[in-house]
Amino acid sequence: MSGRAQLMWDEAVTGYDFGRDHPMDPVRLALTRRLVDAFGLDKDVDVVAAQPAGESTLRLVHREDYIEAVKAASVDPAAADQSYGIGTLDDPAFVGMHEVSALIAGQSVGAAEAVWRGEALHAVNFAGGLHHAMPGGASGFCIYNDASLAIARLLELGAERVAYIDVDVHHGDGVQAAFWEDPRVLTISLHEHPRTLFPQTGWPEETGGEAAEGTAVNVALPAGTGDAGWLRAFHSVVPELIAEFRPQVLVTQHGADTHFEDPLAHLAVSLDAQRAVQVACHDLAHEYADGKWVALGGGGYAVVEVVPRSWTHLVGIVAGRAIEPEAMIPEGWRQEVFARTRQLGPARMTDGRWPVSWVGWDAGYDPADRLDQAVLATRRAVFPLRGLLA
Ligand SMILES: [Zn+2]
Fold this sequence. Notes:
Blueprint: E1 6-8, H1 27-38, E2 46-48, H2 55-58, H3 64-75, H4 97-116, E3 122-125, H5 146-156, E4 162-166, H6 173-178, E5 185-192, E6 216-221, H7 227-245, E7 249-253, H8 271-288, E8 293-296, H9 307-319, H10 331-341, H11 370-382
Parallel strand pairs: 1-2, 1-3, 3-8, 4-5, 4-7, 5-6, 7-8
Bound molecules: zinc ion (ZN).
Protein name: Acetoin utilization protein AcuC
InterPro entries: AcuC, HDACs, His_deacetylse_dom, His_deacetylse_dom_sf, Ureohydrolase_dom_sf
GO biological process, one term: epigenetic regulation of gene expression
Protein backbone atom coordinates (compact mmCIF):
# COMPACT_ATOMS: atom_id res chain seq x y z
CA MET A 1 0.00 0.00 0.00
CA SER A 2 1.24 3.44 -0.79
CA GLY A 3 0.87 5.92 2.01
CA ARG A 4 0.16 9.58 1.78
CA ALA A 5 2.42 11.90 -0.14
CA GLN A 6 5.56 13.07 1.63
CA LEU A 7 6.95 16.57 1.87
CA MET A 8 10.61 16.31 2.74
CA TRP A 9 11.58 19.16 5.02
CA ASP A 10 14.08 19.99 7.71
CA GLU A 11 14.18 23.69 8.59
CA ALA A 12 18.00 23.43 8.57
CA VAL A 13 17.97 23.27 4.74
CA THR A 14 17.57 27.05 4.88
CA GLY A 15 21.21 27.08 6.01
CA TYR A 16 22.17 26.47 2.36
CA ASP A 17 23.31 30.06 2.12
CA PHE A 18 26.09 31.41 -0.09
CA GLY A 19 25.89 34.85 1.49
CA ARG A 20 24.12 38.16 1.21
CA ASP A 21 24.84 39.11 -2.39
CA HIS A 22 24.30 35.65 -3.85
CA PRO A 23 21.16 35.18 -5.98
CA MET A 24 20.21 31.86 -4.38
CA ASP A 25 18.67 33.42 -1.28
CA PRO A 26 17.40 30.72 1.10
CA VAL A 27 14.44 32.94 1.94
CA ARG A 28 12.88 31.33 -1.14
CA LEU A 29 12.77 28.01 0.71
CA ALA A 30 11.47 29.49 3.95
CA LEU A 31 8.76 31.47 2.16
CA THR A 32 7.71 28.42 0.16
CA ARG A 33 7.42 26.36 3.32
CA ARG A 34 5.28 29.09 4.96
CA LEU A 35 3.04 29.38 1.90
CA VAL A 36 2.51 25.61 1.93
CA ASP A 37 1.34 25.96 5.54
CA ALA A 38 -0.75 29.03 4.77
CA PHE A 39 -2.78 26.89 2.37
CA GLY A 40 -2.96 24.07 4.91
CA LEU A 41 -1.17 21.68 2.59
CA ASP A 42 0.97 20.44 5.48
CA LYS A 43 -2.20 18.63 6.66
CA ASP A 44 -2.47 16.74 3.37
CA VAL A 45 1.07 15.31 3.36
CA ASP A 46 3.38 13.63 5.80
CA VAL A 47 6.12 16.13 6.55
CA VAL A 48 9.28 14.08 6.89
CA ALA A 49 12.84 15.11 7.78
CA ALA A 50 15.18 12.50 6.35
CA GLN A 51 18.72 11.89 7.54
CA PRO A 52 21.57 13.67 5.74
CA ALA A 53 23.17 11.62 2.99
CA GLY A 54 26.12 9.73 4.45
CA GLU A 55 29.51 9.10 2.89
CA SER A 56 28.58 5.86 1.18
CA THR A 57 25.52 7.48 -0.39
CA LEU A 58 27.41 10.57 -1.53
CA ARG A 59 29.97 8.28 -3.13
CA LEU A 60 27.29 6.75 -5.34
CA VAL A 61 27.77 9.87 -7.47
CA HIS A 62 30.60 11.99 -6.11
CA ARG A 63 34.33 11.34 -6.06
CA GLU A 64 35.91 10.83 -2.68
CA ASP A 65 38.52 13.57 -3.19
CA TYR A 66 35.75 16.05 -4.00
CA ILE A 67 33.77 15.13 -0.88
CA GLU A 68 36.96 15.59 1.16
CA ALA A 69 37.50 19.02 -0.42
CA VAL A 70 33.93 20.07 0.45
CA LYS A 71 34.37 18.88 4.02
CA ALA A 72 37.63 20.79 4.39
CA ALA A 73 36.10 23.98 2.99
CA SER A 74 33.13 23.48 5.26
CA VAL A 75 35.43 23.77 8.27
CA ASP A 76 37.74 26.44 6.85
CA PRO A 77 36.06 28.31 3.98
CA ALA A 78 39.10 30.51 3.39
CA ALA A 79 41.10 27.43 2.43
CA ALA A 80 38.58 26.20 -0.18
CA ASP A 81 40.23 24.48 -3.13
CA GLN A 82 38.93 26.34 -6.20
CA SER A 83 40.00 23.54 -8.51
CA TYR A 84 36.88 21.76 -7.19
CA GLY A 85 34.66 24.72 -8.03
CA ILE A 86 34.25 25.74 -4.39
CA GLY A 87 35.31 29.09 -2.98
CA THR A 88 34.32 30.63 -6.32
CA LEU A 89 31.91 33.46 -7.09
CA ASP A 90 29.14 31.01 -8.03
CA ASP A 91 29.83 28.58 -5.19
CA PRO A 92 31.40 30.42 -2.27
CA ALA A 93 32.46 28.20 0.60
CA PHE A 94 30.75 28.68 3.96
CA VAL A 95 30.91 27.07 7.37
CA GLY A 96 28.69 23.99 7.46
CA MET A 97 28.50 23.74 3.67
CA HIS A 98 29.10 19.99 3.66
CA GLU A 99 26.50 19.29 6.33
CA VAL A 100 23.67 21.31 4.79
CA SER A 101 24.43 20.07 1.27
CA ALA A 102 24.34 16.48 2.55
CA LEU A 103 21.09 17.27 4.38
CA ILE A 104 19.42 18.50 1.17
CA ALA A 105 20.73 15.43 -0.66
CA GLY A 106 19.38 13.24 2.13
CA GLN A 107 15.89 14.67 1.60
CA SER A 108 15.93 13.69 -2.08
CA VAL A 109 17.39 10.27 -1.32
CA GLY A 110 14.77 9.79 1.40
CA ALA A 111 12.05 10.81 -1.05
CA ALA A 112 13.32 8.26 -3.56
CA GLU A 113 13.43 5.50 -0.92
CA ALA A 114 9.90 6.24 0.31
CA VAL A 115 8.48 6.21 -3.20
CA TRP A 116 10.39 3.11 -4.30
CA ARG A 117 9.33 1.16 -1.23
CA GLY A 118 5.72 2.28 -1.58
CA GLU A 119 5.72 4.13 1.74
CA ALA A 120 4.61 7.19 -0.19
CA LEU A 121 3.01 7.44 -3.61
CA HIS A 122 4.73 10.75 -4.36
CA ALA A 123 7.37 12.73 -2.50
CA VAL A 124 8.65 16.27 -2.96
CA ASN A 125 11.85 18.02 -1.90
CA PHE A 126 11.67 21.59 -3.16
CA ALA A 127 15.02 22.37 -1.48
CA GLY A 128 16.59 19.90 -3.92
CA GLY A 129 17.09 19.84 -7.65
CA LEU A 130 20.74 20.95 -7.45
CA HIS A 131 21.35 19.59 -10.92
CA HIS A 132 24.64 21.25 -11.88
CA ALA A 133 26.88 19.54 -9.31
CA MET A 134 29.31 17.19 -11.04
CA PRO A 135 30.80 13.95 -9.71
CA GLY A 136 34.07 15.75 -9.05
CA GLY A 137 33.14 19.38 -8.54
CA ALA A 138 30.69 22.09 -7.56
CA SER A 139 29.00 24.15 -10.26
CA GLY A 140 26.22 26.67 -10.70
CA PHE A 141 25.20 27.06 -7.02
CA CYS A 142 25.19 23.27 -6.55
CA ILE A 143 27.49 21.35 -4.20
CA TYR A 144 26.06 17.82 -4.05
CA ASN A 145 23.77 16.64 -6.82
CA ASP A 146 20.72 15.46 -4.87
CA ALA A 147 18.87 14.61 -8.09
CA SER A 148 21.64 12.31 -9.26
CA LEU A 149 21.94 10.82 -5.78
CA ALA A 150 18.22 10.07 -5.63
CA ILE A 151 18.44 8.32 -9.01
CA ALA A 152 21.59 6.43 -8.03
CA ARG A 153 19.85 5.26 -4.86
CA LEU A 154 16.86 4.03 -6.90
CA LEU A 155 19.25 2.00 -9.06
CA GLU A 156 20.94 0.66 -5.95
CA LEU A 157 17.53 -0.43 -4.66
CA GLY A 158 16.96 -2.36 -7.87
CA ALA A 159 15.26 0.05 -10.26
CA GLU A 160 16.01 -0.83 -13.88
CA ARG A 161 14.44 2.17 -15.61
CA VAL A 162 14.38 5.66 -14.10
CA ALA A 163 13.25 8.69 -16.10
CA TYR A 164 14.40 12.19 -15.14
CA ILE A 165 12.62 15.26 -16.51
CA ASP A 166 14.31 18.63 -15.89
CA VAL A 167 12.38 21.80 -16.76
CA ASP A 168 14.74 24.26 -15.06
CA VAL A 169 15.74 27.06 -17.43
CA HIS A 170 19.33 25.77 -17.21
CA HIS A 171 20.53 22.49 -18.70
CA GLY A 172 20.51 19.58 -16.21
CA ASP A 173 24.15 18.94 -17.01
CA GLY A 174 25.23 17.25 -13.77
CA VAL A 175 22.49 14.63 -13.93
CA GLN A 176 23.14 14.00 -17.62
CA ALA A 177 26.87 13.59 -16.89
CA ALA A 178 26.29 11.20 -13.97
CA PHE A 179 24.27 8.78 -16.13
CA TRP A 180 25.82 9.48 -19.55
CA GLU A 181 26.88 5.86 -19.95
CA ASP A 182 23.95 4.29 -18.08
CA PRO A 183 21.07 2.97 -20.24
CA ARG A 184 18.91 2.54 -17.12
CA VAL A 185 18.44 6.30 -16.78
CA LEU A 186 16.66 8.48 -19.34
CA THR A 187 17.45 12.17 -18.76
CA ILE A 188 15.31 14.78 -20.52
CA SER A 189 16.15 18.44 -20.11
CA LEU A 190 14.25 21.41 -21.53
CA HIS A 191 16.21 24.61 -21.16
CA GLU A 192 17.24 27.93 -22.69
CA HIS A 193 19.67 27.43 -25.55
CA PRO A 194 23.33 26.92 -24.53
CA ARG A 195 24.30 29.74 -26.86
CA THR A 196 22.69 32.25 -24.51
CA LEU A 197 22.83 30.63 -21.08
CA PHE A 198 24.94 28.82 -18.50
CA PRO A 199 26.19 26.06 -18.51
CA GLN A 200 26.54 26.26 -22.32
CA THR A 201 25.68 22.58 -22.74
CA GLY A 202 22.47 20.75 -23.55
CA TRP A 203 22.68 20.70 -27.32
CA PRO A 204 20.20 18.39 -29.04
CA GLU A 205 23.12 16.35 -30.38
CA GLU A 206 24.01 15.30 -26.83
CA THR A 207 22.17 11.97 -26.80
CA GLY A 208 24.13 9.77 -24.39
CA GLY A 209 27.36 7.79 -24.29
CA GLU A 210 28.21 4.77 -26.40
CA ALA A 211 26.67 2.35 -23.92
CA ALA A 212 23.53 4.44 -23.57
CA GLU A 213 22.78 6.12 -26.87
CA GLY A 214 19.37 7.76 -26.88
CA THR A 215 19.11 8.09 -23.10
CA ALA A 216 20.07 11.77 -22.95
CA VAL A 217 17.55 14.19 -24.44
CA ASN A 218 18.01 17.92 -24.78
CA VAL A 219 15.55 20.55 -25.94
CA ALA A 220 17.40 23.84 -26.43
CA LEU A 221 14.78 26.57 -26.46
CA PRO A 222 15.26 29.99 -28.04
CA ALA A 223 15.59 32.89 -25.61
CA GLY A 224 12.22 34.58 -25.20
CA THR A 225 10.17 31.37 -25.43
CA GLY A 226 6.82 31.93 -23.73
CA ASP A 227 4.04 29.75 -22.38
CA ALA A 228 2.63 28.40 -25.63
CA GLY A 229 6.05 27.54 -27.02
CA TRP A 230 7.32 26.01 -23.78
CA LEU A 231 4.25 23.80 -23.39
CA ARG A 232 4.32 22.86 -27.08
CA ALA A 233 7.98 21.82 -26.73
CA PHE A 234 7.30 19.79 -23.59
CA HIS A 235 4.35 17.94 -25.09
CA SER A 236 6.08 17.41 -28.44
CA VAL A 237 9.00 15.58 -26.86
CA VAL A 238 8.42 14.28 -23.34
CA PRO A 239 5.28 12.08 -23.38
CA GLU A 240 6.34 9.98 -26.39
CA LEU A 241 9.74 9.28 -24.86
CA ILE A 242 8.29 8.40 -21.48
CA ALA A 243 5.72 6.12 -23.10
CA GLU A 244 8.47 4.29 -24.99
CA PHE A 245 10.94 4.10 -22.06
CA ARG A 246 8.33 2.91 -19.54
CA PRO A 247 10.09 4.13 -16.38
CA GLN A 248 9.43 2.40 -13.07
CA VAL A 249 9.79 5.72 -11.33
CA LEU A 250 9.79 9.34 -12.44
CA VAL A 251 12.11 12.00 -10.98
CA THR A 252 11.33 15.57 -12.01
CA GLN A 253 13.16 18.85 -11.44
CA HIS A 254 11.03 21.99 -11.32
CA GLY A 255 13.42 24.94 -11.36
CA ALA A 256 11.22 28.04 -11.42
CA ASP A 257 13.75 30.16 -13.31
CA THR A 258 11.92 29.79 -16.63
CA HIS A 259 9.65 32.58 -15.36
CA PHE A 260 9.50 35.93 -17.17
CA GLU A 261 10.47 37.72 -13.96
CA ASP A 262 13.53 35.60 -13.28
CA PRO A 263 16.63 37.81 -13.23
CA LEU A 264 19.17 35.20 -14.40
CA ALA A 265 17.67 33.85 -17.63
CA HIS A 266 15.65 34.81 -20.68
CA LEU A 267 12.60 32.62 -21.09
CA ALA A 268 9.17 34.18 -20.64
CA VAL A 269 7.15 31.45 -18.96
CA SER A 270 4.37 32.22 -16.48
CA LEU A 271 3.51 30.58 -13.21
CA ASP A 272 0.41 29.19 -14.90
CA ALA A 273 2.47 27.31 -17.48
CA GLN A 274 4.83 26.06 -14.77
CA ARG A 275 1.82 24.68 -12.92
CA ALA A 276 0.57 23.06 -16.14
CA VAL A 277 3.88 21.23 -16.55
CA GLN A 278 3.77 20.10 -12.92
CA VAL A 279 0.32 18.63 -13.58
CA ALA A 280 1.63 17.00 -16.77
CA CYS A 281 4.51 15.36 -14.85
CA HIS A 282 2.05 14.07 -12.27
CA ASP A 283 -0.10 12.63 -15.05
CA LEU A 284 2.92 10.96 -16.68
CA ALA A 285 3.91 9.37 -13.37
CA HIS A 286 0.45 7.83 -13.05
CA GLU A 287 0.19 6.82 -16.66
CA TYR A 288 3.60 5.18 -17.00
CA ALA A 289 5.30 4.74 -13.61
CA ASP A 290 2.55 3.36 -11.42
CA GLY A 291 2.35 6.78 -9.76
CA LYS A 292 5.92 6.60 -8.44
CA TRP A 293 7.01 10.23 -8.52
CA VAL A 294 9.83 12.14 -6.86
CA ALA A 295 9.52 15.90 -7.45
CA LEU A 296 12.36 18.33 -6.78
CA GLY A 297 12.85 22.10 -6.83
CA GLY A 298 15.81 23.69 -8.56
CA GLY A 299 16.75 27.17 -9.70
CA GLY A 300 14.55 30.22 -9.22
CA TYR A 301 15.83 33.67 -8.36
CA ALA A 302 12.65 35.73 -8.23
CA VAL A 303 12.64 34.57 -4.64
CA VAL A 304 9.49 36.39 -3.44
CA GLU A 305 7.36 36.87 -6.52
CA VAL A 306 7.76 33.47 -8.20
CA VAL A 307 9.46 30.63 -6.33
CA PRO A 308 7.11 30.25 -3.34
CA ARG A 309 4.03 30.21 -5.54
CA SER A 310 5.49 27.84 -8.11
CA TRP A 311 6.61 25.25 -5.57
CA THR A 312 3.48 25.59 -3.45
CA HIS A 313 1.57 24.61 -6.56
CA LEU A 314 3.96 21.66 -6.88
CA VAL A 315 3.37 20.58 -3.29
CA GLY A 316 -0.39 20.86 -3.82
CA ILE A 317 -0.24 18.60 -6.87
CA VAL A 318 1.97 16.10 -5.03
CA ALA A 319 -0.43 16.21 -2.08
CA GLY A 320 -3.44 15.49 -4.26
CA ARG A 321 -4.95 18.86 -3.43
CA ALA A 322 -3.89 21.14 -6.26
CA ILE A 323 -4.28 24.84 -5.47
CA GLU A 324 -6.49 26.57 -8.02
CA PRO A 325 -4.70 29.27 -10.03
CA GLU A 326 -7.38 31.79 -9.06
CA ALA A 327 -6.77 31.23 -5.34
CA MET A 328 -6.07 34.33 -3.26
CA ILE A 329 -2.91 34.17 -1.17
CA PRO A 330 -3.57 34.24 2.59
CA GLU A 331 -2.89 37.67 4.05
CA GLY A 332 -0.75 36.28 6.88
CA TRP A 333 1.82 35.03 4.39
CA ARG A 334 2.01 38.41 2.67
CA GLN A 335 2.61 40.04 6.02
CA GLU A 336 5.45 37.64 6.70
CA VAL A 337 6.92 38.37 3.29
CA PHE A 338 6.89 42.09 4.06
CA ALA A 339 8.40 41.58 7.49
CA ARG A 340 11.24 39.47 6.11
CA THR A 341 11.98 41.18 2.82
CA ARG A 342 10.31 44.64 2.84
CA GLN A 343 8.71 43.56 -0.44
CA LEU A 344 5.03 43.23 -1.19
CA GLY A 345 4.24 39.61 -1.92
CA PRO A 346 1.97 38.54 -4.76
CA ALA A 347 -1.77 38.46 -4.09
CA ARG A 348 -2.88 35.49 -6.15
CA MET A 349 -1.61 32.06 -7.20
CA THR A 350 -1.79 32.97 -10.89
CA ASP A 351 -0.08 35.31 -13.33
CA GLY A 352 -3.43 35.68 -15.03
CA ARG A 353 -2.52 33.43 -17.93
CA TRP A 354 -4.78 30.54 -16.89
CA PRO A 355 -5.84 28.47 -18.75
CA VAL A 356 -2.71 28.38 -20.88
CA SER A 357 -3.25 27.18 -24.42
CA TRP A 358 -0.77 25.60 -26.79
CA VAL A 359 -0.86 23.68 -30.05
CA GLY A 360 0.23 20.04 -30.26
CA TRP A 361 2.82 18.66 -32.69
CA ASP A 362 0.14 16.56 -34.38
CA ALA A 363 -1.31 19.74 -35.83
CA GLY A 364 1.87 20.14 -37.88
CA TYR A 365 4.93 22.35 -37.63
CA ASP A 366 6.53 25.31 -39.32
CA PRO A 367 10.15 24.71 -40.39
CA ALA A 368 10.76 28.47 -40.34
CA ASP A 369 9.67 28.84 -36.71
CA ARG A 370 12.54 28.90 -34.20
CA LEU A 371 10.65 26.99 -31.50
CA ASP A 372 9.65 24.31 -34.00
CA GLN A 373 13.25 24.14 -35.21
CA ALA A 374 14.36 23.45 -31.63
CA VAL A 375 11.80 20.68 -31.19
CA LEU A 376 12.64 19.18 -34.58
CA ALA A 377 16.36 19.15 -33.78
CA THR A 378 15.69 17.15 -30.64
CA ARG A 379 13.26 14.75 -32.26
CA ARG A 380 15.62 14.13 -35.18
CA ALA A 381 18.63 13.61 -32.91
CA VAL A 382 17.08 11.22 -30.45
CA PHE A 383 13.75 9.76 -31.56
CA PRO A 384 15.25 7.32 -34.12
CA LEU A 385 17.66 6.05 -31.43
CA ARG A 386 14.58 5.08 -29.42
CA GLY A 387 12.76 3.56 -32.36
CA LEU A 388 10.37 6.51 -32.62
CA LEU A 389 9.44 8.47 -35.71
CA ALA A 390 11.01 11.91 -35.71
ZN1 LIG B 1 18.34 27.00 -13.20
